[in-house]
Amino acid sequence: MNNQEKLSDNDLFLSKYSIYFLHEKPEYIEEMGNIFYNEWKDVYIAFGLNTLNDVIQDMKEKHACNHNKLPMLMIALDNNNQNLVATISLEICDVTSDNPYYNTTPWLACVYTKDEYRGEGIATYMINRMLQFAQQLNYTYIWLWTEHSRSLYERIGFHFVEKIQHLRKDVDIMRIDFNITNY
């Protein structure tokens, strides 16, 4: 295979997975709600979403119809069996009102890949895809917080801002600027 015939990383990804906004595939809301609630229960409770049903209802009301305004949620599906593979969202805010970053927006959140699909670059692809949409919406930077994935986000271009306590956890606050003259 010569260079012209060689598939790009993007083509390889899209041969295995399809990306959708949640409004295009609302049948995955309950499965996603279950994953999110199990993965980030303490975060949802801090935002007043105390039960799985609260999380699912919030997704239906706030995420299921958006693809060009916040909050928006994207999913990746396996092309072979249409299994949910990964999720990512862009939120108005992903910290509670007692956090010093409460008035900043937007936030990358809900970055999740099912265990059996990890290590294939899916999270990186999804993050880059969501960053493209954020730029199309004229955002100049994106915030996130992470407990364990700082190096992943640094490879993508996020920079470390500071380590803080958030919801009784040590987290890294990070940001990516689309206009690097800000540095």
Automatic annotation (TrEMBL):
Transmembrane intervals: none
Domain N-acetyltransferase: residue ranges: 19-179
Lineage: Eukaryota, Metazoa, Spiralia, Gnathifera, Rotifera
InterPro entries linked: Acyl_CoA_acyltransferase, GNAT_dom, NAA80
Classification via CDD domains: NAT_SF
Pfam families: Acetyltransf_1
Listed name of the protein: N-acetyltransferase domain-containing protein
Protein species of origin: Adineta steineri
Listed GO MF terms: acetyl-CoA binding; N-acetyltransferase activity
Record GO cellular component, one term: cytoplasm
